[in-house]
């Protein structure tokens, strides 16, 4: 049996129903009534509900089809900043911890996978609070943890929200370095550094050497030419906002600037 025209894909790889979802055209209801499938994906793998969530519209698509698509409308709602739509999805028990499949995640340079990552990278405090406080989103599902994203961007309010939701203050981006990642991201931001330290940051990690030589706490500060370019560790020198260049192994320097108090 020949399919009705409204389920055909156009030259852009979208169905008429998909176009209706994107544009917010209420006629999409008539399309469904007359047999249009809400489970027909575009050439990019998006279902009409993904676009509907992004545009803050709502209707029905089977959860099985959503899982097979490799992404959740929760991602689309968080990415679009549509709190009302996101809350509806939460109320309908959509999994806020669902991850983008690897193929879709590979399209992002930061390898993001969670809906929470989208909200935080967009500096969306409302959706971030909603995902964490209303739905129990996990902040450690992405290769680059959500806390590190917020610290790197200097977003104090979001960092506070994440820490209040038990995000691991000592998390690492282990694919790059063994040096404490959060500290590396806020070396020039004393306020952010204090926020992390006051929430249990393990500053002792700054003084552990992971190389194959014994680290002598009395060793002289390395020159910039001696610092390994491929590996960040405690021998790295830093520029604090209110201090001259110091070495991270110098415990007294951190104390003198109140960074451990």
**CATH homologous superfamily designation of the largest domain:** Ankyrin repeat-containing domain
Calculate the mean pLDDT score and round it: 71
Q: What is the name of the CATH topology of the largest domain?
A: Serine Threonine Protein Phosphatase 5, Tetratricopeptide repeat
Q: In total, how many beta strands?
A: 2
If classified by CATH, what would the architecture of the largest domain be? Alpha Horseshoe
How many domains?
3
- Structural class per helix/strand content? mainly alpha
Oligomer: single chain
Pfam families: Ank_2 (PF12796)
InterPro entries: Ankyrin_rpt, Ankyrin_rpt-contain_sf
Keywords: ANK repeat, Repeat
Protein name: Ankyrin repeat and SOCS box containing 15
Structure description:
- This protein has 261 residues and is an all-alpha fold.
- The chain has three domains: 1-60, Serine Threonine Protein Phosphatase 5, Tetratricopeptide repeat, CATH 1.25.40; 71-168, Ankyrin repeat-containing domain (Serine Threonine Protein Phosphatase 5, Tetratricopeptide repeat); 172-211 and 225-260, no CATH class.
- Helices cover 39% and strands 2% of the residues.
- The protein contains 14 helices and two strands; from the N terminus they run H-H-H-H-H-H-H-H-H-H-H-H-H-E-E-H.
- The chain has helices spanning 16-23, 28-33, 48-54, 63-69, 73-80, 83-91, 102-105, 115-121, 125-134, 146-153, 156-164, 181-185, 190-197, 251-256, and strands at 237-239, 245-247.
- Strands 1-2 form a two-stranded antiparallel ribbon.
- Helix 3 packs parallel to helix 5 (73-80) and helix 6 runs parallel beside helix 9 (125-134).
- It starts with 15 loop residues before the first helix and ends in a 5-residue tail after the last helix.
